[in-house]
Amino acid sequence: MRINNYISSAGICSRRQADELIIQGRVRINGKKAEIGQDVNPGDKVEVNGEYLKPVKDFVYIVLNKPVGITCTTERHIKGNIIDFINHPERIFPIGRLDKESEGLILLTSDGSIVNEILMDKNKYEKEYIVSVNNEITSAFIEGMSKGVRIFNPVKNTYTRTNRCKVVKIDSHIFKIILTQGLNRQIRRMCSNFGYEVIKLKRIRIMNIDLRNLPVGKWRNLTKEEVKSLLAAKKADTRSDK
Q1: 99 is catalytic
Q2: What global pTM score does this model have?
């Protein structure tokens, strides 16, 4: 197993953060400084900041029906953080994000090797939302949202056009949208471009994982099939990085 994956599997941090620790010389394998990309073999002793690690064998994979007002962060000093809200006995991390003002499906895991990577835009995994807006939905709105919307990207300090997506009108003020990308506050910014304000936004599905009848504020463990799909996505992402 690669050293960064070994560290992340112990629940310390993500693979990318593990690489930073290696670069800083804070990781050792059998007493010697580790190198980026180095393999960890059975019987090897790995230290991070002078402490030996033991990888977690049985990872936790859960789905939460997040309420409005909960922030998807591991920063425990932030009031209403998702970690304190769930209060899981294992050290877990959210996979991706869901705005504080939004509700619905958010995945969490103790498998640090898939945090931040599994839902990257390049993988084009579907995320489905139900959205309520303040104005009556028109055919022009549906068509415009579906074709992609020009919005400002603060990260790159430039404008970008969202990918084509599937948008279906459900009611006069409610629509369903399926995205394969995850720009910051994307749906709200897309709607704003047409003069609409989002009143309620709920994510109901990621890939083949949905909420089912999970009440708001409750969580459940993923089924074997759902975990299998996550791990398959992880392998696809690893291959694409080579």
Answers
A1: yes
A2: 0.76
